[in-house]
Structure formats: C-alpha cells, structure tokens
Write a structure and sequence with these properties.
about 280 residues; 6-stranded mixed β-sheet; Metallo-beta-lactamase, Chain A; alpha+beta
Length: about 280
C-alpha cells in the first residue's frame, strides 16, 4: 500500500527517474497507478571515491526491474552491499528478497518480517558506504515501520512514503498513526536545517528541492484537513466514508479508499470513534 490523497504544489511533469546526483540514481519501477504515481522509486546510493552501493526499496517482484537495478550498478562499476527498506508496503518490498538473494546480500528493514539475514534497521543506525554513510531516521506514521535515510555527503534525505514527490501521502490506519506522522514531519523539518539538506528523494514522484518549504506545506495541509474533519464531526457526522465524500470531494474517487484510511487516522487522533 502506498499512494497520494490530494495534490500539493509541485511538478506535474511525468517522472522517469535517472541520475539525480553523483551519489543517487533512481530506477523507476514499472508499477504506475493512482496509488503509486509514476511507479515506485528504487534508489541506488553510493558515495564519492568508492565502489560500494546500497539499494533502497527494490519495489515489485518484477524480473525486468531487478535486471535494470543490476544494470545501473554495473554501469557505474558499483558493488551492492545490502538492500534497505523504507517500509514494508508491497510496492516497496515485494521484490526485495528475490533481488537480494540474486546478488548474495541481505535485506535490512525495521520490521523483522521483511528482513533477509540477521541485520535489521533502527533509528540512529548508520550503514557504512565507502567514504560516506547512510543514517537511519525513524519516521513512523505513514506506517509503523517507516524510516527515512539521511545522506550527509549528498545533502539528501530519502523519505520513502513519508513525503512524496507529488501529492501527499496517506496515513495507513490502523498501522499508521496521525500523531506519529506529524511528529515525523517535524523531525524531518528540523533535520533539513541541522544537516544542510537541499533535496528530498521520495518513494514516488520527482525529487524535491526546498525541503523545508515542502515539509511546511505538508504540515499546513494536515492541519487544514484536520480542521475540516473536526468541523464535519461537530455537525454529528462520524462515518469515515461520509466524511471522505464531504472533505475530500475534490479528490478523484479512485483514491477515496486512501482518503478513508487517513480520515480514520484523523478520527483516532481526535479521539472520535468512527461509526464503521
């Protein structure tokens, strides 16, 4: 599960992936949909002066996509040392085990269910990458197992589905929680200043500059939607589906199921039990 609920300001141009910085290459998975935008962004990350790389979110179980990841590494003479997951939703993790086994490495994830090998991930962990490193930042909310990755040498944060390149991410209730999500956004906002971050590498959609402005827009959007839901609840409507039809009327119906999950997370945050 993944996806967007409502468009925010940002590029509307199609996203095809490719080299973003000398350290970050996006291999776009062939799984576009209203939930995944142009497809899942699989990231190949390296560091200057070395030949080690990590793959983040191998995406769906697709042999052609796995071959494209290997080809991108071979083209740059990079040796993949591990696979990392931002979270366990199927559009990010389904192909991880088979891909990792095909090149003889492990899969590191916060959720043990998605690991291959003994090593997991936890907030504050550091994954060595030649002369650089990938720092693990716990960002629960979209899902309970969501993490982001800071690349200090690249001025980038890889956000998974916590921040998307286009639109705004759902809160996948009941596993995802709105309070956690808001805390994670604030943490990322603080980190952009503390670590001199200049770009966000999302799990779907194009790369984003001006990360502080993007995250501020996310926070403002959440506050606005929460206020709208509160106003509807005050009229006596607590059915999540009815609230979606009122508050998210401007959103395409094909993503109303995502909106309903977020509404349920909002009701939980407001301590209002849904009627169904």
């Amino acid at each position: 599960m993944s996806g967007h609920v409502l468009p925010l300001a940002g590029s509307t141009e199609p996203w095809a992936g490719g080299a973003v910085t000398p350290s970050a290459v996006c291999i776009l998975a062939p799984n576009p949909s209203p939930w995944t935008l142009d497809g899942t962004n699989t990231w190949l990350l390296s560091a200057p002066g070395g030949n080690q790389a990590v793959v983040i979110d191998p995406g769906p179980a697709d042999a052609g996509h796995a071959a494209a990841i290997r080809a991108a590494a071979d083209e740059r003479d990079l040796s993949i040392v591990t696979v990392l997951l931002t979270h366990g939703h199927v559009d990010h993790s389904e192909g991880a085990r088979a891909f990792a086994e095909s090149i003889g490495v492990g899969v590191q994830a916060l959720d043990p269910e998605h690991r291959l090998g003994a090593e997991g991930l936890a907030d504050g962990d550091v994954v060595a990458l030649g002369d650089g490193e990938v720092r693990v930042v716990g960002t629960p909310g979209h899902s309970s197992d969501s993490v982001s990755f800071l690349l200090p040498h690249d001025g980038s944060i890889l956000t998974g589905d916590t921040v998307l390149g286009r639109g705004t991410s759902l809160v996948a209730w009941p596993d995802g929680r709105l309070g956690d999500y808001l805390d994670s956004l604030r943490r990322l906002r603080d980190l952009t200043a503390a670590a001199d971050v200049v770009r966000l590498l999302p799990g779907h959609g194009p790369v984003l500059g001006a990360p502080a402005m993007v995250i501020d827009a996310y926070l403002a959007h959440r506050a606005g939607r929460l206020a709208e839901v509160s106003e509807v609840v005050a009229t006596g409507v607590t059915d999540a589906g009815e609230i979606v039809a009122i508050v998210y009327a401007d959103v395409p119906r094909e993503v109303w199921p995502a909106a309903e999950l977020t509404v349920r997370a909002q009701l939980d945050y407001l301590a209002v039990p849904p009627t169904r």
